[in-house]
Design goal:
Elements (H helix, E strand, L loop, with lengths): L2 H42 L6
């Protein structure tokens, strides 16, 4: 494998790790907001979406 191929592989692996980390962070925030809506919604009178 050439040096360019190795460099591209390393950059692709780094980018994939960053993308997965960002997706996990977004999923965690969605879960936190969903739980907050489910837990605090009835106390403040927010209706459920379904």
């Amino acid at each position: 494998m050439s040096w360019i191929g190795i460099l591209l592989l390393v950059v692709a692996i780094y980018a994939a790790i960053k993308v997965v980390g960002a997706l996990l962070k977004i999923a965690l925030w969605v879960a936190i907001l969903g739980f907050a809506w489910w837990y605090f919604g009835p106390m403040i009178g927010v209706p459920f979406p379904f």
